[in-house]
Amino acid sequence: MARYLCSLTLSVPIEELLSSLGDILQTCDFEIIYQTGDYLMAREVPGRISFSKLVTVEALIDRTTATPEEVRVNFVVKNEELPLQVDNHCRQMFNVVQRAIADSSQWQLLESVSS
C-alpha cells in the first residue's frame, strides 16, 4: 500500500477550512465521500485509472491546537498500489494535492512537513 503523509499549518479561520478544503480537492479530481466537523475523506474519481490505483485523501483537523489565526491539518494520501517505483500514481496525486493546497488563495501556508 502506498501511503504519504503531510502535516500543514494554515492561516485560515477554522470555520472556513472544511468547505475550502473540499473545493480544492474537487479541483484535483477527488469527490468527497465522508465529512464531519474535523475530518474529511475524499476519493479519486473512478474511470481514468485502474481500481487498485485509485487514491484516497484523508484530512484530519487538529482542533486541540487551533487558534483563531491558524489551524494544523494532517493529510494521508494512500491507495492499494505497491510503491515499487518512486514516482508512482499515489505519489503523483500527493504532489498534486500538496501543490494545490500550497497555491490556494483561500489561506496562507505557514508550515509544511511531509514524509
Report what the structure shows.
Helices cover 25% and strands 39% of the residues. With 115 residues, the protein is an alpha+beta fold. It has a single domain (2-107), classed as TATA-Binding Protein (2-Layer Sandwich), CATH 3.30.310. Strands 2-3-4-5-1-6 form a 6-stranded antiparallel beta sheet, covered by helices on one side. A hairpin with an 8-residue loop joins β4 and β5. The two termini are 15 Å apart.
**What is the class in the CATH system?**
Alpha Beta
> What fold name stands as the CATH topology?
TATA-Binding Protein
In the sheet with the most strands, the strands line up as 2-3-4-5-1-6
Uncertain ranges: none
Q: Strand content of the residues, in percent?
A: 35-45%
Quick one: overall form? globular
Q: What is the succession of H and E elements?
A: EHEEEEHE
Task: Describe this protein with a few key phrases.
115 residues, alpha+beta, TATA-Binding Protein, 6 strands, globular
